């Protein structure tokens, strides 16, 4: 399994630096013994109760964008303390990352209370996601009803099936934006016609189009 070593100590005192170096050395040896490939080593000296950690953000980015399968830690307290630890565990689980603990000799096993909290957090997030999707759907219905725009008459590739399409219809993004739809509503429209696209991607493509046209000004929501 390909993973990232994450080692942390709580302060920047000189004696803690030695502890940090020892953590890394032990985790590297553990990875070799267990047959894991170490892609990167991330270390930091910061309180585990604080989520505003540069090393933590780096870890999450590496897992999300570089497809690391696992994070190797000395024990679960290295990820954080108290509520901060639960928040980090939740994010790692969302990213589909396996947490491997040297202390436990394998995949991290949570306490019953922690597992319950994470389950509740996942359910709350699922409800929020469904709520947001419903709001987008209502917004699209309102836009079509009030603004008289039917995207199915204009979108290319409509009816061809499939979810993955490399090209996005930028001209239709522009047309929808001119109809005062939000980027979320535009993304939802494109998704409905088979385009695997996010709000951020729609925003970026629209901004790129404006730059190419030499149009100045902020790209804002209505």
UniProtKB/TrEMBL annotation:
Alphabetical list of Pfam families matching this protein: Resolvase (PF00239)
SMART domains tied to this protein: Resolvase
Domain Resolvase/invertase-type recombinase catalytic: 2-147
InterPro entries recorded: Resolv_N, Resolvase-like_N_sf, SSR_resolvase
GO MF, one example: DNA binding
Listed PROSITE patterns: RECOMBINASES_3 (PS51736)
Similarity remark: Belongs to the site-specific recombinase resolvase family.
This protein's name: Site-specific DNA recombinase
Natural source organism: Marininema halotolerans
């Amino acid at each position: 399994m390909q993973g990232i070593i994450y080692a942390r100590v709580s302060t920047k005192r000189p004696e803690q630096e030695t502890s940090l170096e020892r953590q890394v050395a032990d985790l590297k040896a553990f990875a070799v013994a267990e047959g894991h490939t170490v892609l990167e080593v991330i270390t930091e000296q910061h309180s585990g109760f604080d989520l505003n950690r540069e090393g933590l953000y780096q870890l999450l980015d590496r897992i999300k964008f570089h497809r690391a399968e696992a994070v190797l830690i000395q024990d679960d307290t290295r990820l954080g303390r108290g509520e901060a630890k639960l928040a980090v565990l939740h994010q790692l689980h969302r990213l589909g990352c396996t947490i491997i603990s040297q202390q436990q000799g394998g995949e991290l096993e949570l306490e019953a209370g922690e597992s319950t909290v994470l389950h509740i957090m996942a359910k709350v997030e699922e409800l929020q996601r469904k709520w947001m999707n419903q709001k987008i759907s209502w917004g699209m219905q309102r836009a079509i009803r009030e603004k008289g725009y039917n995207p199915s008459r204009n979108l290319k590739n409509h009816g061809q099936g499939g979810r993955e399409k490399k090209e996005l219809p930028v001209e239709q993004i522009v047309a929808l934006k001119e109809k005062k739809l939000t980027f979320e509503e535009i993304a939802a429209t494109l998704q409905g016609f088979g385009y695997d696209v996010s709000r951020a991607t729609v925003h970026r493509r629209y901004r790129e189009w404006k730059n190419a046209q030499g149009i100045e000004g902020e790209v804002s929501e209505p």
